[in-house]
């Protein structure tokens, strides 16, 4: 389902909203097959980091590359052409279209041929409920099913890098576990993942390394297995 290739490099990333310095000197790398998490309290700059990588908001950086592609020169509308998939916060499926049409729209840049149908079948294998509901309007799905649809739609473009913004938001613990299983499988298949999450448990279990963000700047970085037990993370993340 995924296309192999070099990973993401971000150096010296900054984002300003008027007089607010929302992201300060963010540095990260996401090699193929790696999953990097960005966690922090509300307003810490997590979503701004992801939107900046995607080119959805103005930003400046020393380097922002996916392999040999300079993403600073790529407008947001063309990111998918260079192997970047994006699962936005809030899902943003097309509610008036059937599930299968939503998925096929994710492959709009690819020539219509047998491998498009193969990708569709792979998404249905990841999310069997979508196969069952493929003719149902997306707007009639539950929140968890819409999240699966949003991830599946992004995968239809066969990305090298998948950006996920709060995929667990509003989901039951059972559905969060289902999403975790899918992310672990995608990582094992060689896809690079950059995960922004409020759910620290999901982030630590889904990723190899994490960046803990405070007031827009990286406060701590390290292996997820180490950070999840570090009392300083609890202090930064929860303000305790």
Report on the structure:
The protein has 240 residues and is α/β, with parallel strands linked by helices. The chain has a single domain (8-238), classed as P-loop containing nucleotide triphosphate hydrolases (Rossmann fold, 3-Layer(aba) Sandwich), CATH 3.40.50.300. It has nine helices and ten strands. It has a six-stranded mixed beta sheet, sandwiched between helices. Strands 2-1-4-5 form a four-stranded antiparallel beta sheet, with helices on one face. Helix 2 (99-105) packs parallel to helix 5.
Note the main attributes of this structure.
9 helices; single chain; 25% strand; alpha/beta; globular; Rossmann fold; 240 residues
Topology:
Elements lengths: L7 E10 L2 E11 L4 E5 L6 H9 L8 E4 L2 E2 L13 E4 L11 H7 L8 H13 L1 H5 L10 H13 L5 E5 L7 H16 L3 E5 L3 H7 L2 E6 L2 E7 H4 L3 H8 L2
Parallel strand pairs: 3-8, 3-9, 6-7, 7-8
Antiparallel strand pairs: 1-2, 1-4, 4-5, 9-10
CATH fold title: Rossmann fold
Give the full name of the CATH homologous superfamily: P-loop containing nucleotide triphosphate hydrolases
Structural class: alpha/beta
CATH structural class: Alpha Beta
Q: Count of DSSP helices?
A: 9
What are the secondary-structure elements, in order, as H or E? EEEHEEEHHHHEHEHEEHH
Number of extended strands? 10
Q: Mean pLDDT, nearest integer?
A: 90
Strand residues, percent: 15-25%
Give the termini distance in whole angstroms. 42 Å
The second-level CATH architecture is: 3-Layer(aba) Sandwich
């Amino acid at each position: 389902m995924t296309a192999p290739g070099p990973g993401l490099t971000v150096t010296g990333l900054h984002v300003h909203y008027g007089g607010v310095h929302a992201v300060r000197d963010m540095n990260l790398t996401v090699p193929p097959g790696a999953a990097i998490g960005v966690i922090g309290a509300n307003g810490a700059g997590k979503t701004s980091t992801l939107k900046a990588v995607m080119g959805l908001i103005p930003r400046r950086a020393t380097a922002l590359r996916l392999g040999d592609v300079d993403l600073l020169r790529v407008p947001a509308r063309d990111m998918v052409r260079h192997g970047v998939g994006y699962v936005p916060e809030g899902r943003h499926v097309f509610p008036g279209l059937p599930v299968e049409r939503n998925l096929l729209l994710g492959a709009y840049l690819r020539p219509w041929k047998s491998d498009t149908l193969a990708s569709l079948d792979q998404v249905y294998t990841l999310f069997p409920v979508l196969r069952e509901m493929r003719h149902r309007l997306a707007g009639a799905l539950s929140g968890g099913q819409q999240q699966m649809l949003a991830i599946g739609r992004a995968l239809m473009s066969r990305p090298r890098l998948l950006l996920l913004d709060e995929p667990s938001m509003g989901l039951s613990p059972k559905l969060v576990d289902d999403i975790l299983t899918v992310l672990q499988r995608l990582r094992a298949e060689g896809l690079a993942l950059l995960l922004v999450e409020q759910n620290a448990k999901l982030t630590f279990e889904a990723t190899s390394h994490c960046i803990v963000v405070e007031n827009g700047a990286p406060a701590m970085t390290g292996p997820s297995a180490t950070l999840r037990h570090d009392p300083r993370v609890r202090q930064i993340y929860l303000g305790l």
